[in-house]
Amino acid sequence: MAYGIIHFFPGGTKEQYEASLAAVHPSRDSLPKGQIFHVAGPSAGGWTIVAVHDSKESWEHFRDGVLKPQLQKGITGGFAMPPQETAFEVHNLQQ
To answer: Which superkingdom does the taxonomy of this entry point to (predicted)?
Structure first.
């Protein structure tokens, strides 16, 4: 079952997003293994990222193997604080 993640970074900016994306995605034109959807943009008070993975397990693999280690090392120019996170099982995914 697909699994969705919403990350909200209070006070986050496009520049912080671009720096963070470069550190955790394989390239600007491809998604990490298991991720099937990614969208991001400015929102009230910060920056929001929505990602959908093909399963909760693929999200956890990306989170624990790529995202957390990179954020813990620090990303020059990236988001300074951890996001507010909402996770959910996807009921309907249309592509």
So the answer is: Bacteria
Query: By the 8 A CB rule, do 53 and 34 touch?
Result: yes
DSSP code of residue 11: T
The residues, any chain, with a CB within 8 Å of residue 79's CB and separated by 6 or more, are: 9, 12, 16, 17, 20, 47, 71
Q: What is the pTM of this model?
A: 0.93
Give alpha helix (H) positions in 1-95.
Answer: 14-24, 56-62, 68-73
CB 11: neighbour CB atoms within 10 A? 11
Percentage of the chain surpassing pLDDT 70?
100
Q: What is the mean pLDDT of residues 45-56?
A: 98
State which amino acid sits at residue 1.
M
Name the amino acid, one letter, at 77.
G
Other Cβ atoms closer than 10 A to 14: 11
